[in-house]
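Q: What does the assembled structure look like for these inputs?
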Amino acid sequence: MTILREALLVAGKDLRIEARSRVALQQIVPFGGIVLIVFAFALDPDRGLLPRVAPGLFWTAVLLASLLSITRSFSIEEANGARDGLRLSGLDGGAIFLGKAAAVALQLLLLEVVLGLGVVVLYDVSVRGVVLIACTTVVATVALAATGTVYGVLAAGLRARETLVPLLVLPAVTPVVLGGTRAFEAALAGVPSDGWPWVQLLAAFAVLAVVAGVLAFGPLLEEDS
Amino acid sequence: MNARIGVGTKLLGAAAFLSLGALAVFALVVAPPDERQGDAQRLMYVHVPAAWLAYLAFFVTAVASVLWLIPRTRSTTWDLLAGASAEIGVIFTGLALVLGSLWGRPTWGTWWEWDARVTTTAVLFFLYLGYLALRRTGATAQERGTRCAIAALIAFADVPIVHFSVTWWETLHQDATVLDPKLEVNMEGFWMPFTLVWSVFAFTMLYSFLVTVRLRLAELDEGREEKALELAIAERVAVTV
Amino acid sequence: MDDNWGYVAAGYVITIATLSAYGGWLWFRLRRARRADLDR
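A:
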């Protein structure tokens, strides 16, 4: 089987588990939503602050929710020795990485659509530069999912993984938050030309993260915990 | 394995201590105050070497991590060195942040600035704090070596990316140029550049000493862990026999 | 200008304190390891 077929196999498995358990839909997306609402409590909605910082708040909410997605992606491998099953399956480590990261990315994209609507409604944002926004979202999500999946397998099986994964992921993906926010700001301000360079940065980050993941996933999966 | 430190290490420690003492004299007494910053300039003589050392320490961690990952060169020593150096690196990073803040207050008027260097240093601090937390998840090098090595390399690769992205943001921003004093200090005369160079030298000696001692400590702890593991396994086997 | 010395003093004190504390911790742990060595 080719790498792509194997990756699709793994991604399909993860998405099927999600379709049955609906954890992303019923828990992670609502979590993103409540984060948006918490921001409104923490900041002053009356002084026109929220629309101005909406891009940053959006990406912060996505980032926090992605931590849940990543942890979830590997907690499903805990039961019934599923991780051993993965190791013994003969699937290529890089393929497993691509599959799991793709599944996380897809769930994040779904989350982002919902949160995007949430931001428009809750923070009174007028949408412009849709193409830039869409491209930014896709690239940033790939970067986020790939980086997160690497740390996810790194911490998989460890007792402290629920607290380790956030601590490890957040500093590492700061450029993604920076790039995503700046690109969104450019789009909403009607100056997309300011935003496209950030998309390039995000794309470079995404490529690096995917390469790192493909290389590192196999050895990390083989690690005993 | 002997817990005693060798003579060479002790000499290194003494040399480090003496050169740091000399640094204190150069930095606080001999070197003149800066024209614009006044005596606050003297903080540079500890802030700059601390930052330099942090980067050196994390570079050593990265190299040791690579050596661990390559099967032919894999050895417990590399894992322990990576951890020892990272620990020292985190301490120096924290120190650099605090000292930079103390320097910034009289110079810029604020305790903090979100420019590329300061921001990157803050992210660096947390990246390796996470690495240190990860190290505590395995008692022996065998258990933690690979995941820590990969985490260290990701962190090391991430730093220039973070720095670049914030730098880029600054250049696009372009209104933060009031902070001219933050850019390279005017090194006039002899004593200012000399003291700065001396400070880097003294701190490098300190790093060498600390990492050697910390590595020895780590080797002792590792030996104890492995013995405990062997003992536990032997006991278990004895029960089943 | 003179009140800058407060910051300088704070910086050097913190540096010395931190390095001393770390050095002391290392020394203490090594001593404990040496005692464990002798026990064996």
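Chain A has a mean pLDDT of 92.
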